[in-house]
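Re: Re: token formats

Sure, here are both.
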Amino acid sequence: MDSDGSNSRAVEDGPSTVFQLARAMVSTNWEALPPEVQNMALNLVLDSLAVMAAGSAHPDMRYLRESIAPSPGPCTVFGDSVGANIQDAVLLNGSTITVLQRQDGYSRMKGHPAIQLAAVLLALGEERKAHPKELLNAFVGGYEASARIGLGMGGVPFHLHDIGNWVTIGVSAAATVLTCSGDATAVASAIDGASSLGLHFDRWTTTAGATLHHLYPAVACTTALNVARGVKSGLSARVGSLSSFYGSFLADGFNGPAMLEGTVSGAWAKYEILNGYYKLYPSCAHLHGVNDAIAALLEDERFREDDVRRVDVRLFDEGMAIDCSAPKNDLAARFSAKATVAAAIRFGTLDDPGLLELEALKPLMDLISVSHGPELDVHKPSGRPGTVKVELKSGRVISRTVIHPRGTPRVPVTDSQRLAKAMSLLGRVYGASGAERILEEVYSLPQASSLEGLTASLRVHGPVCSGGM
């Protein structure tokens, strides 16, 4: 390929691929989208707002807001009743994304497009007084571009975390759709520009309980915002950076043609947003097969902590790679099979409060063993398999294996499960009536003339719930 810069590792016709993605993004039209795509987009917007709102109530996030002390502006900061400047708003809202480990995911490739898009586009939409359909067009187009870039990257290298990588490129482009009024050339420049910045983060901060980890999505979101602003100002990108730099050095197996899968003549012919998934547990998705298995056993067998003699957990290889056997805080606990299984047994269900009481969980965690189940490896990447076997003091042994957890495209989340998650998370900050109002505002966006109703519903009137969990 030709690029304006020398790089012998350039491996695909990057400029034409990038421009076709950009053209598809700017041609995304809410009115022309299939109803199932519209529904999925609104569902993911609601899910993302709920996750960020509940995350903002975590003590770590309250301390971060106090430390940054955002200056006034037009943009919502979750956990605050006063608007802030866009840079602080995107930083603070982005920081909430991983706190509870409940963010959305994309089932065909590791990454979390919807919530990073929501964090950036909400702030930009508020600052620019964008029409709701402009925001929704950018959201859907950004998801589609992000997903295809992820497919082209072939995944995330083993040593890197799946926050703040290929998704950032798509979010940068989506933000540019708003800042540059649908200019495909500008959007293409944002794709290459974000690629050249090459964000990549250490995978192992999670199991170490290193809470600066929460700055990964914050840095990714502010990077996307700044790329869009830079392109708007006239800063230029090196054409071909997506393939020649990012694809060559930060991909797990670059495949340029995959980025145009499901596109025809610069338009979406199918929608990858339908391959998004919802996290029903406050834990790493690699543990969700295990989390589903213990939930099913508890529901079917009705046993309690005092009934348990021992528990054996088997994980697929990638689950074992991230598993933390001795978590020191709730971040690490969300990456721990022992902690999440113990919390489910002790409290009857796995939810955030149970992961804050690690000392109380320790006696039960000591009864749990975790090992690799090679027989489970064949089910990835679409599956997140896990097996839980419980030996009861009565002598009975009960076991459950789950290959595809609930919330994934193979076992879709039900409307009641999805809404229960959103209402529970929003209710922690806004109360039941406030949560209902936000739900109504989100689903009214296609008919709304401005974002003011949604913005007003998201501003906290009074103190955030002190427990936050």
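Second one below.
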Amino acid sequence: IASRNSDPVQQMVISVTSIESSSKAYNVIPQSVHIKGTARTMDTEHRDIAEARLVALAEQIGASFGATVKATFNRSYPVMVNHDAQTEFAADVARSVTGQCNDAPLVMGGEDFAFMLEERPGAYILVGNGESAPVHHPAYNFNDDIIPIGCSWYAGLIEHGMPI
């Protein structure tokens, strides 16, 4: 889907994360199978493509084997898109605290803050942790030395955004 149905330069990740059948025996053809997964994109246009193609492919593959398919696509979280002015504001404050602000790579995680960004301008910001395994990795080790810098950044956002 990502390479044939959309611009391959655009980010699209489709993952099958769970396959469960009604049979627990290896030598019995199950009556039903549930396949679950995620589709992540950087914009709603490509999410629409992913949904349409996933549903169509599931139904077509099932039909080719004489099976009935009920395909559903649940959009748990919207695509998270930062607003330019708020992102630049956060970057300016970071530079005032540390003297620099690194561009972070695009993040494709599902995040409920995306609902807020649909309603109000804002920016989802991250405090860098240095060289470590990713957050949800078992080898992740939080860098405690970053706490004062992160606190200064958050306090700076308030001080610069809501001066007394």
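Helices lie at 44-64, 84-98, 113-119, 147-161. The CA atoms of residues 1 and 53 lie 7 Å apart.
- S.
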